[in-house]
DNA sequence: AAACACTTCAACCGCCGCTAG
DNA sequence: GCTAGCGGCGGTTGAAGTGTT
């Protein structure tokens, strides 16, 4: 009997009709009670599937498009503090879903760790993020804004927060009643980041109002995803590396041939790797 | 133009914690 | 106190899209 019911359940990609059914139902009755909702809306989907579709895709305030530099910075910082607690991290990135952040981390950040041949949770990688990636991101953000000094001035604080404050702020956060209220260390220190992100409103694929990134200084963020410099390195960067350690590393070079890492940067990273015996 | 490799991300799965009965 | 049902979460998968040879 149960099997029979499962046989009827649809799986896989959602159709436009299903999306409309779900949106209309939620517009009229609200969310929650997902199993009942699925049935009442006439959807041959599990409640879980409906919830996921709504939260990750159809929700009006879901923000689509590329992760901005500011968001990347925030993700790095929050992941440093909380680890793979995607939903918690997502709470600090309005309009972004845990799924999206998780995907970003897996496809972009973990890839970098792999190329450095270190574990994404290792000290090496965390230090690399902290001392190299995050500062570079901040420089890029500053550059995008066309100068200004606020972010760079705040850098030591940010790095400090990613270190000494970790356990303390985490504990405070855990004990607070809501995630949003946690941020004696969190959003207060990160506010300089979130302040940069302007938002405009638009409509989603079905004409519902949604939020949309308004890239500061725009400039086609597509090309800079996943890298503090935003260049896809096709074998340039640090040059050939038999070990494959840094070859093709998106952080390290430009597809246009101009290496954005200074010799000093490269030396620092190499020394860092050497100190870990890599 | 075609085949292959790689990347992205929507969706599913399984586990866990909470809660109502 | 026990249990079933549900929602939420993190991990994983695979189809589709994109890039490269």
TrEMBL record:
Polar residues: compositionally biased ranges: 166-187
Localisation per UniProt entry: Nucleus
Region (Disordered) location: 165-187
GO cellular component: a single term: nucleus
Coiled-coil blocks: none
Entry annotated with the keyword Protein biosynthesis: no
Protein name: Uncharacterized protein
Organism: Stephania yunnanensis
Native organism taxonomy: Eukaryota, Viridiplantae, Streptophyta, Embryophyta, Tracheophyta
